[in-house]
Amino acid sequence: MDILYKSTRSDTEGITASKAILKGLADDGGLFVPDRIPELKVSPSELKDMDYKATAYEVMRLFLTDYSEEELKSCIERAYDEKFDDKDIAPLKKVGDRYFLELFHGKTIAFKDMALSILPHLLTTAIRKNNSDKEVVILTATSGDTGKAALAGFSDVEHTRIIVFYPKGGVSRIQELQMVTEKGRNTKVVAVRGNFDDCQSQVKAIFNDEELKKEMASKGFAFSSANSINIGRLIPQVAYYVYAYGRMLKEGYIKDGEEINFTVPTGNFGNILAGYYAKLIGLPIGKLVCASNDNKVLYDFFETGIYDKNREFILTSSPSMDILISSNLERLIYMIGGSDAVRNEALMKSLKEKGRYEITGDMREKLESFAGFYSTEEEVSKTIKELYTKDGYITDTHTAVAVNAERKYRESLGDCRKNVIVSTASPYKFAKSVYDSIKGQSSGMDDFEIIDKLEEMSKVKIPPAIHEIRNAKILHDEVCDREGMKDTVKKSLGL
Ligand SMILES: *Cc1c(COP(=O)(O)O)cnc(C)c1O
Fold this sequence. Notes:
The protein has 22 helices and 15 strands. By secondary structure, it is an alpha/beta fold.
């Protein structure tokens, strides 16, 4: 029987995975969740000898049940190919006594590539499967990394257009350059005067604008989302947790069936939720440590059971985690609330109207797989320096948030299970913050000079993604206000 996807906000009938991927967000504003959790069909010892693609197939076939074997395998083949600069796709590295799962070997050197290199294939397959004749318009809000990864994935993909909104001044120089130099003919990139939450909430509002939807439909367009609210992004991410476990076994770091922890630098809660799905399908995972930066709304939530976004928004050196509304948390809230759409809807309404909600004691008990910790800017900086000095390994700022949070977790709870740090970006993407952390002061050097220095220091070759933007022409320079986003969309579609 097919796994169907239901909204977190109403008890309407479920739809197939391919339909859920096409829609992105449910009509009632809720997120799609699987109506039951499947079980991993391979044992840990079998995982040991599976490569990334085989692992991805084993995981994705469990959730995306209306895709045929041939369809899924074809999507996987086309996604995880030479676009990645490491044959393992997601290499596991042991550095000192730490394990890093490096998810930044794709086209745009951040972990978003893991899902966004396959989403366009899943989506175009879904268009075919459902005999849709609509042109899919991908609308995306980005805190920096999703934007370029989505642009790269959808660039010149037929039957699709993509519009990306990013917060002006809220992303790193390299991130911005990657986006505004995008060449795809079906792409549009717009800077918004506001922060990521402004971009994200406005994109959601545009999605739910009934009048606009009708107008779009009459012109042959339909919206979808490349944000991690799309189930087509979440499910492919489950694969690398399973893959990491196989690598840990293969290298002899753990015994068959031994529980391991993962620490995940978290913003929108998509990555870590995929880790939770991996645990639910039967992967031996102990704790999932949710690492936050100074925007520690999730840390406070795990501490108190109160989610409260009413606070100052802080721009940090890990901009992809500068988020106060973690969209994917809704999927977890729905689950721990007993898959009760009415209960979830009430909490989300409270979040929308009052900026906060509080969960009950019985719901809190179901959060035992998680631990929340956070790292200050000073700690992040110190961590980067220490790792380089001690082990000669350079991490980006987001990964450093996790390294420090994991240390705090281990020291305060004395958990000695092995831990894998989910490493989400290449240090080259956040070159200035990384370099200044190691040097202990602001260098005043240009980003590209710093990149050359980092290459000398780390002995890790500068990835093609950086070479590509060095001298690229700026092709997108539009800026708008939050209120102007809808008009920008309409204009770009000729409505
Ligand atoms: C997006 C991103 C994160 C946060 O991931 P979520 O799935 O949104 O929690 C962390 N680090 C980097 C580098 C990212 O690009």
